[in-house]
Amino acid sequence: MPESEPRLIRGYLEVLAAQLPGPIVEELADGLTETHRSYLSRGLSADAAAEAAVAEFGPAEEILAGFARVNPARRAARRLLGFGPVVGGCWAAALATSRAWPGSLPTRVGLGLALVSCIGLLAVAALDRRYRVAFYSGVAGCVGFAALDASLIVGVLVVAGVASWVTAVAMAFSSARIALCARAAAAAQQNT
Amino acid sequence: MLLATLEGGPRHGYAVIEALRQSTGGRLDLPTGTIYPALRRLEQAGLITGSWSVVAGRRRREYRLTPAGDRALSGRRADWRDFSAIVTSALENTGLENAACPSPNPA
Known about the structure:
The complex is a heterodimer of chains A (192) and B (107).
Chain A: H1 7-17, H2 22-41, H3 46-57, H4 60-69, H5 72-98, H6 105-127, H7 131-159, H8 165-190
Helix pairs in contact in A: 1-2, 2-3, 5-6, 5-7, 5-8, 6-7, 7-8
Chain B: H1 2-5, E1 11-12, H2 13-23, H3 35-44, E2 48-55, E3 58-65, H4 67-100
Antiparallel strand pairs in B: 1-3, 2-3
C-alpha cells in the first residue's frame, strides 16, 4: 500500500501482517485498495472512504480466524495426530515382538522425548488460532516426525538387522507418514 | 456460489465479491475480507487455481476454475435444482392438500 493511503487502512493491514504470511497480506492489501478506490469514485473523502472500506472488509479478527481455519499446517497436524496412534501401535508391536529396541537406554529416552516434543508441536499447530504459531509448529512437528520415522527405519533395519512382517508393516506406515509430512510441507509452501 | 463467479473467467478477490453482489442484486452482502480464506479453501480443494500478476505496481492474485472446479459447479447446480424442485413441490402440494381438505370445525 503506498504512503498516501490513509492511516486507518495502514493500521488495519499491520494487524493482519502481524499474523499472516506476506503473500496473503499482499492479496488483502490489493483488495482493500480496490475497495477504497471504489468508495473514492463514489465521491467520499479519503478518510471516509477508508472507514467504509475497512468496515466493508469486516473485523480483522474474523479474517484472521478464517485464515487460521484454512492453514495447511493445521490440517496436516490434525491428520498426523490422527494417524500417529496407528503408526505408534505398529512400532510398539514390532519392537516388542522382535525385542529389537534400537540403541542404548539414553538413546531410547532421547527418542521418547523427541516423540513427545513432536506430538506437542503438532497439538499446538492443530489447536492454536494464531496463523504463524500454528504454521511454524506444524512444520517443525512434520520435520520432527519425518526424522523420527527415518531414524526408526534405519535403526531397526540396518543397525539391529531385524526384518519380520510386523516390522515391515511398521516401516510401511512410517514411510507413509514421511510421505504425508513431505506433502504437507509442499502444501504449506504453496499456500504462503 | 464463489465457483459460479469464476465461470466467466479469472477474477481477483475483490472482483469475486463484486460479481457475487451483482449476481444476487446486492441481497447477499458478505464482509469482503471473508472471501479470501474461502478462496484459499477452494484452492486447497483443487477446485480453483490462483496465479500472481502485477497491476498498477501491486501484486494481484487471480483465481480461475480448474476442470475439477468446473465439474463441481455443474454437480452442485444440478443438486441445487433437484433440492429446490423437491422443496417447491412439497410446499405447493401441502398448500393444495390443505385447501382441498380444510380442518374440521370444532364447533
